[in-house]
Amino acid sequence: MDKIKIENVKQVDIKLIKPYWRNSRDNKATVEVLKESIKKYGFNVPITIDNKNVIIAGHSRFNALTQLGYKGKIPCVVKTDLTENEVKEYRIADNKIPELTEWYEKDLVLELREIGNTDEMQQYFPQINLDAWLDDSL
């Protein structure tokens, strides 16, 4: 538990932030959906950068804000305690960890039914027809 650190979030001008030159993910589809999410729910997850303002985690969020024309400061966690290899490991880990998540389908179905209008949620489930899936889950 000695390595657990809760970092301070700092406000950094978006013009100073630089994407990592070898970002290994194609996030175009994610950015489009994320732009809609940011417009509706706000920008709620900081970007993680190194001490040179290079993105460690959060390329999709950064690209969404940029494409939305945002100017000003954004919340960032500035990591200064990681080695170059640890930064590379974290970039990969941060992107791979969510892929390990599985849904509790029964609870997801209940949540979606309570929302009622699946049109808003459909963009987050591009691989399935939500209305048909919910009908099949009765």
Please characterize this protein's 3D structure.
- This protein has 138 residues and is an alpha+beta fold.
- The chain is built from 6 helices and 4 strands; from the N terminus they run E-H-E-E-H-E-H-H-H-H.
- The protein has helices at residues 28-41, 59-67, 84-96, 105-115, 119-122, 130-136; strands at 9-13, 47-50, 55-57, 73-79.
- A 4-stranded mixed beta sheet has the order 1-4-2-3.
- The mean pLDDT is 91.
The main sheet comes to: 4 strands, mixed
Rg, rounded, reads 18 Å
Task: Outline the low-pLDDT stretches.
Answer: none
Helix and strand sequence: EHEEHEHHHH
Distance between the termini: 45 Å
Task: Briefly note the structural class of the backbone.
Answer: alpha+beta
Number of strands: 4
Strand-helix topology:
Blueprint: E1 9-13, H1 28-41, E2 47-50, E3 55-57, H2 59-67, E4 73-79, H3 84-96, H4 105-115, H5 119-122, H6 130-136
Parallel strand pairs: 2-4
Antiparallel strand pairs: 1-4, 2-3
Helix pairs in contact: 1-2
